[in-house]
Specification:
This is Transporter. The protein is built from nine helices and 21 strands. With 339 residues, the protein is of the alpha+beta class. It folds into two domains: 224 residues, 3-Layer(aba) Sandwich (Rossmann fold); 99 residues, Beta Barrel (OB fold (Dihydrolipoamide Acetyltransferase, E2P)). It is globular and about 75 Å long. Bound molecules: adenosine-5'-triphosphate (ATP).
């Protein structure tokens, strides 16, 4: 699937120069703050809105652009919305049957359609609730119905708009696994909008970070985490300490401190600004020796590790450390780089 397009609402560009090619069966998470254009991108691919410029195509078929605009129901895709979008008067089975009535499925016999519906109901654990209405289901069960309805027609593309945001924390984790299973089972290409960084890091093959309607960076979760290309990506994808210092080609030095950091994989933009992005687990707290002098100003235990907040000159840094050696509030310590 490829997409080179823009979308304007009145005088404002909601999408700018989006140029993106997605491979079959890829799982792409679209991540970004509120209002950055995630939903507009998804709705453009879905056919709910027409891009102002550019082309969206699936393989060789133009979905929009060059005078074409394929209707939503004629696109080879399934959608899952944040609000589940279930009809209150329809049972679970009726929801799952609904997409099988579209003209895209008319080549299938009645028997095959029935089998497909029952198979999906079974595989998502909905068989005991098949005759219930949405009002008689829990949040997680409703989300399963929305997923079942999206996949029953075996679409090539699944568009998911914050599908887990209405669920509580525990349910979110089990539904993440459900979505990963669906991805493996169906081989569908997934475009998954979220503003939850952990969701994007956990599930996607590639993450697309958007900012003000444009793509800020696209890459694997590991790349986005370890090699952010902008300050925005560094801080948006996960917590990040921006250490101020001086770059001397590939070597980073912090004033008055014998610390030197190798910066081969640090993006140029940080070098121009005299910054080194350090993840909380890349710092190590030590009691003596060379390092950045800092003071512990807060600590939080979470069962696995301790999250320390430290004051370091005028900066405030976050460090995740093991529980073996603990540091006290107010203690003066040193930070060294530990990767
Ligand atoms: N129908 C519309 N008319 C005018 N402006 C719109 C319309 N739909 C969206 N916008 C604007 O386009 C921009 C992008 O909106 P969009 O809904 O795509 O953002 P988002 O990243 O999905 O945000 P959120 O995470 O809050 O859902 C916003 O500034 C929004 O106000």
């Amino acid at each position: 699937m490829s997409n080179t397009s823009q979308k304007k609402f009145g005088p404002a560009w909601a999408l700018k120069d989006i140029n993106l090619t997605i491979a079959p069966s890829e799982f792409i998470a679209v991540l970004g703050p509120s209002g950055c254009g995630k939903t507009t991108l998804l709705r453009s691919v879905g056919g709910f809105i027409e891009p102002t410029d550019g082309i969206i195509r699936l393989n060789d078929q133009i979905y929009s652009g060059q005078g074409h605009m394929v209707a939503v129901e004629d696109r080879d895709l399934g959608m899952v919305f944040q609000s589940f979008a279930l009809w209150p008067h329809m049972t679970v089975r009726e929801h799952v049957e609904f997409p099988m009535k579209s003209k895209r499925q008319k080549h299938l016999s009645r028997e095959k359609k029935k089998k497909a519906v029952e198979r999906v109901i079974e595989s998502l654990g909905l068989a005991p609730y098949a005759d219930r209405l949405p009002g008689q289901l829990s949040g997680g069960q409703r989300q399963r119905v929305a997923l079942a309805r999206a996949i029953v027609g075996r679409p090539s593309i699944l568009l998911m708009d914050e599908p887990l945001s209405a669920l509580d924390a525990e349910l979110k984790i089990s539904m993440r696994q459900e979505i990963q299973n669906i991805h493996r089972r169906t081989g569908a290409t997934i475009l998954y909008v979220t503003h939850d960084q952990s969701e994007a890091l956990a599930m996607a093959d590639r993450i697309l970070v958007m900012r003000e309607g444009a793509i800020e960076q696209i890459g694997t979760p590991q790349d986005m985490y370890a090699h952010p290309e902008t300050e925005f990506v560094a801080s948006f994808v996960s917590q990040c300490n921006m250490v101020k210092g001086r770059w001397d080609r590939q070597v980073f030095k912090v004033a008055d401190c014998p610390l030197v950091y190798d910066g081969h994989r640090v993006a140029d933009i940080f070098k121009q600004k005299g910054l080194y992005p350090v993840r909380p687990e890349q710092f190590k707290i030590v009691r003596g020796g060379d390092g950045l002098p800092a003071t512990i100003i807060n600590k939080q235990y979470n069962g696995r590790e301790i999250q320390y907040s430290l004051r370091c000159g005028t900066d405030r840094f976050t460090v995740f450390a093991g529980c073996d050696e603990q540091f006290d509030l107010g203690e003066d310590v040193y930070l060294i780089f530990d990767v």
